[in-house]
Amino acid sequence: MSEIHVRIADWQKDNADLRRIREAVFIAEQSVAPELEWDGEDADAVHFLAFERDYAIGTARLLTDGHIGRVSVLKDWRGLRVGDRLLQAAIAEAERRGLKRQMLTAQVHATAFYERHGFKIVSSEFLEAGIPHVDMLRESD
Questions:
Q1: Contact indicator for 60, 48 with CB cutoff of 8 Å
Q2: CA dist., res. 44 & res. 38, Å (int)
Q3: Which option is the CATH number for 4-99: 3.20.20.10, 3.40.50.720, 3.40.630.30, 3.40.80.10?
Q4: Which residues contact 138 (CB under 8 A, 6 or more apart)?
Q5: How far is it, in rounded angstroms, from Cα 50 to Cα 3?
Q6: Under which main EC class is this enzyme filed (predicted)?
């Protein structure tokens, strides 16, 4: 496998890649309704794209209040630490912007992944888009 790299994406210029990945992961695989996936927050968010060479394989976004979300990696690239690279990029950008608290809503099966990056569960389990989730928080020094 060649080197994976992550960069900040442009919602307008990179829209096709961002949509292709999120539609494959959330809408096709996890049956999230399109109207829940496309929530109106994207225009103001900082987006990240992970690439293998020049092919986009993963995405994440950071909202202006420090919420990280829409972390998604195409099936064939899972288990290769692509999600780690995306999350690290989002955390670094949040900290660069002075956002000392990063929050996210995690699918329950993925909580250990986020805990490895310093997030702690701060809510009871709840359903979102029919999938069990918890809220998680990370506080920077």
A1: yes
A2: 13
A3: 3.40.630.30
A4: 91, 101, 102, 103, 114, 117, 118, 119, 120
A5: 10
A6: transferase
